[in-house]
Amino acid sequence: MPGDDSGESDEHEDRAGETAAEKGAERDSGGDGTENDKVPTNDGQRFDRLPATDAERRDPERPTRREVLEWWDERFGVDPSVFADHTFWERGRGKVWAFAGSAETPVETEGLGMTFLRTRREHWKPTLEAVQRFGDHATRNVVALSRAEAATFVAGRDQSLPWDGDWGFLVVTHELAGEEEPLGVGLYVHGELRSQVPTGRRREF
């Protein structure tokens, strides 16, 4: 399972898995949009719904809904129930989208919901859109920045920063109107917070 070991109990992991199956089974039933015994082609021009569980997976590298929910729970402490009304779709290889609703699979369209997660890599990576939409539910691996630090981050610049938590991808927040608001994704390694804000989304303040 990609991502860092959260150290949570087996009981907690089982609960997350059960929630994934119960909340998403109806939306994500029917495998991954292929006929029986046919491996998906990972067509970059269409969306295939993620299979609910490993038992329904035909492409061995395609993530399941259960794995996606467990990853968000283990890495950021986001309860699987947060995504109960969303279905997850893969377009191409490893580009997972979240859609607030359901549809027949596969779907041939330019976009379906929001870009959500990058998989099929050693360490899964949440997108800026996903963190800004769901990051306020995160209870783990969240780093809060001062005004100056936040300005550096949204400008796309890296910065030295003390952090006693896990290395890897973090939810980066800053206080606005008295509440911590998610700004985006940061990568923390070797005492440095590396901004993952895409070039076209960077701003100078």
What are its keywords?
Archaeosine Trna-guanine Transglycosylase, Chain: A, domain 4; five-stranded mixed sheet; alpha+beta; 2 domains
Mind explaining what this structure looks like?
- The protein is α+β, with helices and mostly antiparallel strands and 205 residues long.
- The chain folds into 2 domains: 10-122, no CATH class; 141-201, Roll (Archaeosine Trna-guanine Transglycosylase, Chain: A, domain 4), CATH 2.30.130.
- Helices cover 22% and strands 24% of the residues.
- It is built from 4 helices and 10 strands.
- The chain has helices at 10-28, 65-76, 128-134, 147-154; strands at residues 47-49, 87-91, 95-99, 114-118, 125-126, 142-145, 159-160, 168-176, 179-189, 192-195.
- The strands form 2 sheets. A 5-stranded antiparallel sheet has the order 1-2-3-4-5. A 5-stranded mixed sheet has the order 6-8-9-10-7.
- It starts with 9 loop residues before the first helix and ends in a 10-residue tail after the last strand.
> Which parts are unreliable, with pLDDT below 50 for 5 consecutive residues or more?
1-27, 34-38
Summarize the main sheet: 5 strands, antiparallel
Radius of gyration: 17 Å
Mean pLDDT: 86
Oligomer: single chain
Strand elements, count: 10
Distance between the termini: 39 Å
Helix content: 10-25%
- By DSSP (H or I, 4+ residues per run), the number of helices equals 4
Order of helix and strand elements from N to C terminus: HEHEEEEHEHEEEE
Q: Assign the structural class, choosing from mainly alpha, mainly beta, alpha/beta, alpha+beta, or little secondary structure.
A: alpha+beta
Q: Report the sheet-strand fraction.
A: 15-25%
Taking strands numbered 1, 2, ... along the chain, how are they ordered across the largest sheet?
1-2-3-4-5
Q: What gross morphology would you assign?
A: elongated
Whole-number tally of structural domains = 2
